[in-house]
Design a protein that fits this description.
mainly alpha
Length: 200
């Protein structure tokens, strides 16, 4: 492997390389050597920017978690449009895209990574799931305020059901993500009572 390759925006290129390795080879295949090989640089490049591999992984997770903000914003913008079920189905499909679903097991099985994420940000131990939950919770609260779901709807319980159920649906991506109909069935079942009881 050449040692003189100059990377412009090395951190981002290393993150992108790690994402490709993770999607192709899974969490077990994500090593510092695999990342630098994928990026086409010497292993020392990674350690020039990060104190160790867990520091690199923590920065990767936080970077990818921040990218979920766009999907969260789109969900908030959907308040009052289409149906609540349609909005949540689209949001869960976007929020549980290939990269977040691949990163969650990485967080689950690396104790030091979870510890670093907890130190870095509130709820950071499960950074991506926390991002998804925050987006869904904020959306449900706004729809409740708009009168499209019941005024006494338990937002926390609905969020846990939607995010937990959504994660289970998307966790096994072989041969691919679940069909839209399966996601919609989950969403419709979870919110059926609060939508049926809403003021008309």
């Amino acid at each position: 492997m050449p040692t003189g390759v100059h990377l412009r925006d090395a951190r981002q290129q290393l993150f992108d390389a790690a994402e490709r390795v993770l999607l192709r080879d899974g969490p077990n295949g994500l090593t510092s050597r695999a990342v630098t090989d994928e990026a086409g640089c010497a292993k020392g490049v990674l350690h020039r920017h990060f104190s160790d591999f867990d520091a690199f992984l923590a920065a990767l997770v936080l970077d990818r978690a921040a990218q979920l903000d766009a999907q969260a914003h789109a969900l908030r913008q959907a308040v009052g449009t289409r149906t609540v079920a349609e909005n949540l189905t689209a949001a869960l499909t976007a929020l549980f895209g290939p990269v977040p679903v691949a990163i969650i097991p990485l967080i689950t099985f690396r104790d030091e990574l979870r510890a670093r994420l907890r130190r870095a940000t509130p709820g950071g131990g499960i950074a991506l799931l926390a991002q998804v939950a925050a987006a869904v919770s904020a959306y449900l609260a706004e729809e409740r305020a708009a009168g499209r779901i019941a005024a006494d709807a338990d937002i926390d319980s609905l969020t846990l059901s939607l995010v937990g159920g959504g994660h289970l649906l998307f966790a096994d991506r072989d041969p691919g993500p679940p069909p839209t109909e399966a996601v919609n069935k989950l969403v419709t079942t979870v919110i059926a009572d609060v939508v049926q009881r809403r003021p008309r």
